[in-house]
Structures are given as C-alpha cells and as structure tokens.
Amino acid sequence: MLVLRLLFALSGACFVFLLLRYLIHQKIAPNDQLRARLNNIRTMHHRPNEVRIFPSGQNTKRQLKDIPFVERVVLPLEDYFSQLANQMTPKEWREWLQHKIVLAGKTQEIKPETLFGTMLLSAVLVFLMVWYYTAMQGTDALKMGLFLFFGSIAGGYVPIAVLNANIQKRKNMIMRQLPEVLDLLCVSVQAGLSFDAALRKITDRMKGPLIDEFKHFQDDVRMGMIRRNAMKHLAARCELQDVSLFMTALIQAEKLGSSMGKTLKNQADNIRERRRQYIKAEAMRAPIKILFPLVLFIFPAIFVVTLVPSLLALMKTM
Fold first, then answer.
1. What is the DSSP track for 40-90?
2. Helix/strand/coil percent split, the chain, to 5
3. Maximum C-alpha span of the chain
4. Which is more confidently placed, 109 or 7?
C-alpha cells in the first residue's frame, strides 16, 4: 500500500513538473532571456574595452547568476528526456509519428520523441491510477491485469487521439479554404499575373493552414527544389483528394505546356462542384443524425406534456 502511494505521488509530481515547465516556458522564459540580453547590451555599452578579471569562484558565481533558470535547469532536462525518448522510440514509430505531426501542421511545436515520451507518460499515469483504484476495490489478479493492460493502452493512445482530432480539424479547414483560394488564383492568373506572382499575392494577404502549406511550397521552390516535387510534397502534407487532384492537374499543365488560366478555371469549377455535393450529402445525413436526440430527449418531453394531464385526470375519476 505504501508503494502504491509513493508511485501515485511520483506521478503527481511529474505532472506538476510538466505543468510548471510549460508555464515557465510560456511566461517567464521570454522575460528572462530579454532581461539577460539587455544586461549584456548595457555592459558592452558602458565598458566596451574593459576586461575584468575575477577570482575563479567569484567569476563562476557571477556567470551562473547571469544565466536564466530555464537555460540552467529546464532546457537541459528537456534535452535529456528528449534524447532518452529518441533512443527508446523505434525507427518505424518515429516515422509514423513524424507523419502524424506533419499532417497536424505541428512540425515547429512537436518532435516525434516528445510525442512518444508524452505517450509513455500518459500510459504510466493511467496505469498507476487504475492500479490504485483496483487495489482499493480489492479486485482479483486476473481482472486487475486486464484493467491495467487496457488502461495503459488507452492512456498511451490519448495523445494520438488528440493529434488525430487536430488533423481532422486541419483537413476540414483546408477543404473550406480551397475553393476560395482557387477562385482567387484563377482570377489573378486571368488578369495577367503569373502563377507564382498570384500565389505570392494570396499568401501575403490570407491566413490559414492551406496558406501555410503554399508558403512552405514557395520556400521549397526558393531553396532549389523542383516545382513538381514541391507540389507532390504539398499534396502529401495535406493528404486530401481534392488537393492531390489540384496538384496533379498543375503538374500535367506544366509538363504539357497548356494554359495555366484554363487549368485553374477547370479545377476551381470542379472543386466547387465537389464541395457543393459534399454539403448536399451532409445535409441528407442530418435527419439520420437528429433521430437519436429526437427519440432520447424530445419525444419523452412531448409524452410528458401530452399524456401526464390525461393520466392525472383519469386517476382522479377512478
């Protein structure tokens, strides 16, 4: 029983440490870094040519004092745990997690080893919680083993479920933004701009996940990547059929030398028609989706309003 309490306290301490690390990284770290830079600039400005010699112990103490707490403690711990998680993550899992992160558009915020470490931490926390609950209830060994096994799997899958929700949300935003972007591209190209100039105008004045992918595409082309390969990478990062068809049409138009304005117009019409059909299909599913709330919540209220007065009157007459 004491071991269970110690493990539960350790898991709570880990959670509190991660929460404090997030708060420090978001709130305190920028202020500490800015303050350290301002102090360095002021020192350089007032004493540009002065070289001060301190004893070894005093010099070390002054250097440690000038270093922010985040750089001394938090960042080394983060690097250590990241390296440990990177060593524990299999190569296939790392590639799969990286693909998920790319689809979610979180390449700048999340690393595969960080996501894998979060999965392990979530699984361990759920394992300890289930173990504590089953031990308090006096569950037998077989049921406890089953609960621990499935609870650990569910706890490890929670970060992936959150990431999948972000992926689906991002795909929906791209699908909603794609017809508008295609219309603007078509109008700009037909007005006399080249495809690159029109795309540059749109990315400068719009925001969204699709615009971010087009900016990534522009950066790839600017760095020397072949245009068709950059288009294929854009389609792979979105993993949507409409975006893949659009990129394929642009690649074919570039290979065959056909009119870019005509190609964009055809693609804009096709994408808008597909979007219209998708909305119609969703509208046709609405009666089926509303059936269960209707049966569970609305019908009982109607029955209470219509039948209860008749039943009360009948009971009075009887």
1. HHHHHHH-SS------HHHHHHHHHHHS-HIIIIIHHHHHHHHHHHHHHS-
2. 85, 0, 15
3. 107
4. 109
